[in-house]
Amino acid sequence: MGAAAFGCAETSPPLWPPPGTGAERDCSSRPATRLSSPPTCLLRSSVWGDDGRRHTLDFTLERRSDGALFVTEMKCEIEFEGYRYLTLTGPEQIEHHRQKEAFQKLLRLAREPTAQRVTKGGEEQNVAGSMLVWGVVTPEGRSAAMDRYGFADVLGVEDMLRDLAAWQPKEWADWIGARQRWTNGLFEWLAYRDLPST
Question: For the whole model, what pTM was predicted?
Answer without folding.
Answer: 0.73
